[in-house]
Amino acid sequence: MTALLVIDRLSVRYDSRDVLRALSLEVARGEIVALMGPSGVGKSTALRAVAALQPFDEGRIAIDGFALAPGPVPPESRLVPLRRRVGLVFQAHALFSHLTALDNVTLALRHVLGRSPSEAEAVATELLASLEVGTRAGAWPSQLSGGEAQRVAIARALAPNPPLLLMDEPTAALDPARRSALGATLRHLSKQGRGLLIATHDTEFARSNADKVITLAV
């Protein structure tokens, strides 16, 4: 399989301290890869570097032909191709509290990709319905359950239709039933041809759903 994401010897330092050291991995289209390891080994840092939210010091990142190099994060004006390729679901969902579920999902479509309000709303409505939260489109984040908020966050990440989806500790606040439902959702997304890279502490979830597990050492 052709690699969708290539991380080659990625290293990140804070104040001369190694936070992430020489990470190499690949994610193919249709593949779910779990990135595991104890707290503090750089799992979230790796995801943020791939999404260009975090500078890195050494190595190379390539996402579907778009390359990131060591040094400062490029200006957002140069990252539009990356935003079309990568969606990130944060651990705490990070939905904007002053926006409805629907408006959270349309945000990037309108302000990053330049879609019209009607086009953005049509895409968002379809995504929310496909993730079984269509009836919650008008709800505020504070009115959503943990599982609902997560699905809205997934819809927001998928709105630009990226081939690569990143997820940070997706099962952290989910009960067993919702973990099972999330696993089914992720497998469905992989069958659509997306690649998924998931940072997780959840060994059982990784074993049940990932095609490949990468474990970071301290």
Plain-language structure description:
- With 218 residues, this protein is an alpha/beta fold.
- The chain has 7 helices and 9 strands.
- A hairpin with a 2-residue loop joins strand 1 (3-14) and strand 2 (17-28).
- The longest helix is centred in the last third of the chain and has 16 residues, at 176-191.
- It is globular.
- The chain starts with a strand and ends with a strand.
- The model has no long low-confidence stretch (mean pLDDT 90).
The portion of residues assigned to helices is 25-40%
Total strand segments: 9
Number of helical stretches of at least 4 residues: 7
Distance between the termini: 30 Å
Mean pLDDT: 90
Strand content: 25-35%
Order of helices and strands: EEEHEEHEHHHEHEHE
Largest sheet, strands/sense/barrel: 5 strands, parallel
Which word captures the global form? Answer: globular
The Cα radius of gyration reads 17 Å
How would you sum up this structure in a few lines?
The protein has 218 residues and is of the alpha/beta class.
Topology diagram in text:
Layout: E1 3-14, E2 17-28, E3 32-36, H1 43-50, E4 58-63, E5 66-68, H2 80-85, E6 86-89, H3 101-111, H4 117-130, H5 146-158, E7 164-168, H6 176-191, E8 195-199, H7 203-209, E9 212-215
Main attributes of the structure:
single chain, 218 residues, alpha/beta, four-stranded antiparallel β-sheet, 26% strand
